[in-house]
């Protein structure tokens, strides 16, 4: 073999680096779009009030006799107090000298995305914990769910729709959103009755909105609820499908650090990046700003901070269907 070969001169072979960085995989952040939201200013908590309905009258009036006075409608209140959340990363002075990538702008974006994902996850878990819980195929507990017997189906959708409508949920914000995992959506699309009635949409990649059935709009997100190995035999993954009615949950926070979750009533605009989940506060402390804690100007930090409080306004108007799907045993 000639001495002038790639083995002997391996150090002379250089790597060409692409300045443009690859796109990160991000879930669609949809859980907060339909919450009733309020920004606080100079107050510590937020109170919402609701007067109850009165029952129907079926007794006839007797001539000349005044009936008993009607009972007064009940008044209920919900008080929501927000909490702070945040995270940060530190960097050194050598990063500026040696790092090829634009790490400040990249890490700022990554932290913003983390803030958005954190808000969506906090809201999702709160809804799951406080909504009205049911189970697919008539089961009564997570531990009794088994695939494929208890895979989500059109029948499950109809049962939940009937229960939802029977609770007199108002349609003040248009169609009711249904949030599901892509694995559950795939399972429903294999149900011949569901797929024949389902009206598909053309832009699921941007918004997560995949279509409508009756007066219910379906949104898919990989950040939907999933609980590993919680079903039969502790080997079956459990998922949840959420029917989210108007004025069922509220979210509050202080102006300036309260994330924009998509607006009361929701829309089909994608909110899955840090840029869209403003005004979460991105905080940068540059090298040299640490005073006596950084006497040689060696360290800087990047972080985010947000403020978020959640409250249950009407649990009957949110239904959570825990179920299995075709991926539960993978």
Explain what the structure shows.
The structure is a single chain. The chain has 330 residues and is of the alpha+beta class. The chain contains 6 helices and 15 strands. The strands form 3 sheets. Strands 5, 6, 7, 8, 9, 10, 11 and 15 form an 8-stranded mixed sheet that branches. Strands 1, 4, 12, 13 and 14 form a 5-stranded mixed sheet that branches. The chain is flat. The two termini are 51 Å apart. About 5% of the residues have low confidence.
Keywords, please?
330 residues; alpha+beta; 5-stranded mixed sheet; 6 helices; 20% helix
Write a brief caption for the model.
With 330 residues, the chain is an alpha+beta fold. The chain is 20% helix and 27% strand.
Shape: flat
Query: Roughly what percent helix?
Result: 10-25%
Largest sheet properties = 8 strands, mixed
Class per helix and strand makeup? alpha+beta
Strand content: 25-35%
Rg: 26 Å
Number of strands: 15
Oligomer class: single chain
The span between the termini is 51 Å
Question: Which stretches of 5+ consecutive residues score pLDDT under 50?
Answer: 263-277
Mean pLDDT: 85
Order of helices and strands: EEEEHHEHEHHEHEEEEEEEE
Count of DSSP-assigned helices: 6
